[in-house]
Amino acid sequence: MKEVYDFLKAAGTYYLATVEGDQPRVRPFGTVEIFEDKLYIQTGKIKSVSQQIQANPKAEICAFKDGVWLRVSGELVRDDRREPKVHMLENYPQLKAMYSPDDDNTEVLYFRNAEAVFYSFTEAPRKVEL
């Protein structure tokens, strides 16, 4: 998992894919943390991405760096506890202007039943279980 986390941090931006009805939705994200041995991301509950995840938790993220791309697929699970929110915001202090661990909007989600696969044009795909 650390290798996946390090790749996503180094890439800076990854793209999160969800579905809304039968329409795929993709948008850039940048938050990623490991908390209690799980890979977490962060968003706001008021955003459409949050409603899409709650309706269908299957999601995939994709990042690209130095000729290698990574896809992480699985189910995103909301964690309403204060501790993972604090952890995320401490590691992304720029978000504290918009989010708080005590507001009704901050949402952190972790991947469950997930796998990560590293791809490139020069090597065979390499799978990492999360």
Structure described in brief:
This protein is an alpha+beta fold and 130 residues long.
Short key terms for the protein model shown above:
alpha+beta; 130 residues; 8-stranded antiparallel β-sheet; 3 helices; globular; Pnp Oxidase, Chain A
CATH fold topology: Pnp Oxidase, Chain A
Structural class: alpha+beta
**What would you say the CATH architecture is?**
Roll
N-to-C series of helices and strands = HEEEEHEEHEE
Largest β sheet strand count, sense and barrel closure: 8 strands, antiparallel
DSSP strand (E) fraction? over 45%
**In DSSP terms, counting alpha (H) and pi (I) runs of 4 or more, how many helices?**
3
Distance between the termini: 6 Å
Q: How many β-strands, per DSSP?
A: 8
Based on CA inertia axes, which overall geometry fits? globular
What does it look like?
This protein has helices at 2-11, 48-55, 82-91, and strands at residues 14-20, 23-29, 33-35, 38-44, 58-65, 68-79, 106-120, 126-129. It is of the alpha+beta class. Strands 1, 2, 3, 4, 5, 6, 7 and 8 form an 8-stranded antiparallel beta sheet that branches. The termini are close together. The model has no long low-confidence stretch (mean pLDDT 97).
Give me the secondary-structure topology.
Blueprint: H1 2-11, E1 14-20, E2 23-29, E3 33-35, E4 38-44, H2 48-55, E5 58-65, E6 68-79, H3 82-91, E7 106-120, E8 126-129
Antiparallel strand pairs: 1-2, 1-5, 3-4, 4-7, 5-6, 6-7, 7-8
